[in-house]
Amino acid sequence: MSIITPAREDQAPLARLQAQPLVLGLFLPLYAGGWTVSDAPRGTDWTFDYNARLVARAEAIGFDLAFGFANWLGKDGFGGRTRFRANSLDSLASSAALAARTSRIVLLSTVHALYGWHPLNLARIGATLDHITGGRWGANLVTGFLQGEADKFGQAPIAHDERYRLLDEFSTIVEKLWTEDEELDFQGARWSLKGAYVSPRPAHRRPLLVSAASSDAGFRYAARHSDLVFITSPAGAAIEAALDVLPAVNARLKAYAAEEGRRLQTIINPHIIARDSTAEVEAVHRRIVEGADEAALTAFVEGFSGGDSKSWSGHRREQRIIGGNIQIFGTPEQVVEQCLRLKAAGCDGIQVNFFDYEPDLEFFGARILPLLRQAGLRH
């Protein structure tokens, strides 16, 4: 694949995202088991070829984003009979490879900035990916919050707000390297640079920066740096409970961004189970729950509760079987109704995951996406 000629600024990925009434992303199953802790029969697979097919199909259907998550786990992942997430693909390397198989969709990579990265390394890799993709790459910069992950890198615990102060420093350096025309000298709390420079410059103003936030420190960081912010429901995965609290979450984050003189978009992660009848939806739901891998689920829930993140604190154990920060179950019409309500609650987009990705993605494209267009949520 040849390098794509950079688009005009009004055609840049960020401008295209901001023009959509509801941004549409696909949460990739780069991990064994994806997002569902169950051995109910399905074709979902962690391999690159499988994920590449998903991204190519999502692009053809009209999705805006494909997003890669990252965990650092041990030999058996979360264990159990499914060895949940024992195998995984690197998010950054996967995005680079997917760039050669796509032409329009934005590719987002999760990078744990505090796990051994120097900002100069990421700045060069990011600028390179920006040119390869014609501006379609972005970094989801995260601090990491699980001590078991930090242990693998030989790192001592870092307090929650201090992690965000360090991430702010990291992001400031990367942005300077992407946007300033002079060699950079910088002395910070963790990183220092002398005469640093990245060439060629990014094709657009800079690659997209993304973060996931639920705390005040995370919101303050996002307001300063992020173009797109993954928000979570503090009330758990049930859609009605989430809709009660999300307007306040969105309003607070966007108010912080306004204080910084910036505009950002928020996106939330629903797991969607959609069929032509509620009876079919209930059958799929029941099959997933009956196939729950209880040992892996226990390790999964305990693993994420062992850190200081509050993103999933309101989620019940049974909700974690299926996955998704929120859950939308129903007919195509019911799914679109809930998307309209998420938009009214201040969400600018949805980052979708599925149980059985290929057929569920096809159903979404054929039965739900036309209704989203009719509802004015997609151009």
- Counting helices, strands and paired strands, the structural category is alpha/beta
Total tally of structural domains: 1
Distance linking N and C termini: 28 Å
CATH superfamily: Luciferase-like domain
Percent helix: 40-55%
Please name the CATH topology. TIM Barrel
Strand order of the largest sheet: 1-2-3-4-7-8-9-12
Q: How would a crystallographer describe the biggest sheet?
A: 8 strands, parallel, barrel
Unreliable stretches (pLDDT < 50, length at least 5) are 1-10
Number of strands: 12
Please identify, by name, the CATH architecture: Alpha-Beta Barrel
- What is the alpha-carbon Rg in Å? 20 Å
Number of discrete helical segments? 13
CATH class: Alpha Beta
Beta-strand proportion:
15-25%
> What value does the average pLDDT take?
93
Order of helices and strands: HEHEHEHEHHEEEHEHEEHHHEHEH
Give the CA-based shape.
globular
InterPro entries: Luciferase-like_dom (IPR011251), Luciferase-like_sf (IPR036661), SsuD_RutA_monooxygenase (IPR050172)
GO molecular function: monooxygenase activity; oxidoreductase activity, acting on paired donors, with incorporation or reduction of molecular oxygen
Keywords: Flavoprotein, FMN, Monooxygenase, Oxidoreductase
Pfam family, one: Bac_luciferase
Describe this structure in words.
Keywords: Flavoprotein, FMN, Monooxygenase, Oxidoreductase. This is LLM class flavin-dependent oxidoreductase. GO terms for molecular function: monooxygenase activity; oxidoreductase activity, acting on paired donors, with incorporation or reduction of molecular oxygen. InterPro entries: Luciferase-like_dom, Luciferase-like_sf, SsuD_RutA_monooxygenase. Helix content is about 45%, strand content about 15%. It is of the alpha/beta class. It has a single domain, classed as Luciferase-like domain (TIM Barrel). β3, α4 and β4 form a beta-alpha-beta unit. α4 packs across α6. The longest helix has 21 residues. It is globular, with a radius of gyration of 20 Å.
